[in-house]
Amino acid sequence: MAFYTDAMANYEFDLLIAGAGPAGCTLALNLAGKGYRIAIIEKDIFPRHKICGDALSGKVLNVMQRIPGDVYNDFLQNLNKIPSWGIRFIAPNQHEIDVPFLLTREEDQPAPGYVCKRNDFDHFMFSKLRDFSNIKIFEGERLTEVVTQPGHVIAKTGNHEFHGKVIAGADGVHSTVRKFLQNTKVDHKHFCIGIRGYYENVSGLHPENYIELIFLKRLLPGYFWIFPSTEGLVNAGFGMMQHRIGKRRENLTHILDDIIANDPLIAPRFTHAKLKSKTEAHTLPLGTYRLNRSGHRFILLGDAAFLVDPFSGEGIGNAMASGEIAASVLEQNFKTNDFSAEGLKTYDTRILRRFSQEFKTMSIMQRLAGSARLFNLVVNKARKNKEVSELLSAMFTNEDVMKKLTRPGFYARLLFK
Known about the structure:
By secondary structure, this protein is α/β, with parallel strands linked by helices. It has helices at residues 22-31, 58-66, 71-78, 118-128, 176-181, 242-248, 252-262, 316-336, 345-369, 372-384, 386-394, 399-405, 410-416; strands at 10-12, 15-18, 38-41, 55-56, 82-84, 86-90, 96-100, 113-115, 135-138, 143-148, 153-157, 161-164, 166-169, 191-200, 211-214, 223-228, 233-241, 274-275, 280-285, 294-295, 298-300.
């Protein structure tokens, strides 16, 4: 079968990527110069709307710098964003700590983190795909079925049938690839729900655009966030465990409105604020869920692979890291032409090596945050203990520091040192 012609109903590729978000784009861009025939199958048409907190952590920037070409420099020079130099944690007892992302800074150094509207960031990454003739983009194509055959995988949409040697499911929390090739049923305790809106005239923002995580008792182990954004706006909202919302049977918009109007810590900062968008909610699949992220002729990336940090809600950086890992692994599989479940196990091994200890650590942090008393203790320790402060910063900046700080015995030192 030929590579691609407009008149054809069926297409033949080496790699099918379902989803053109950060995970799928990172995978494609890392393999773009290798000559593989790559299809991007995306249900939306870009620029698309995406609900998010909009914070781009140092993890995002680290992966972006390793993508071949000018992606990182183009991001720095051309994308509409604001720099963020740190993070502010506010405990349930209202004690706060400001943690800079960098302990030392050089003149003209790029910021270690940014806030950029997710619609703009996703469109930026997506636009980079158009530079490569071996990447074919199919927008507005919603997957309806995915099946594996002895020699290939078939992905069907309402219009076309795509054949590939392997498929990467980067198609989000409700992944069609995962549904058809793994059929996992996940307990609600592994999901968080986030809701946000854009506001103007919010007061009390940090002069260096620190992002703020405010741990209100009613939301624990979730938090309320205030992220300074572009155009003088603030992205504000909260995240809450899905099973807790279900028990309370509360309306998320009502909770958000009530916090902004009546919470003694939040309300004074929104006295003159005006909502400039509708409030919208989204689901976050947490890394607390264990699943096989690969199988016969498929791998799962990003939200489809449950890679959201269970404490911070970090998702974009982890998604992009999974795309980077997938590119490295698949390049070897293309050399051996082995896309069996056994042949793709290396992807699971690499993902676990990268994330397992971090997720264990952040899962413990999540449980600590479920108790106002214990999380007050964590923040108090961070105010006095450099190691704890570094951990809180490293969640958003540096995976190498995370590995160092989450070695055995860390929590004994955290709570009792």
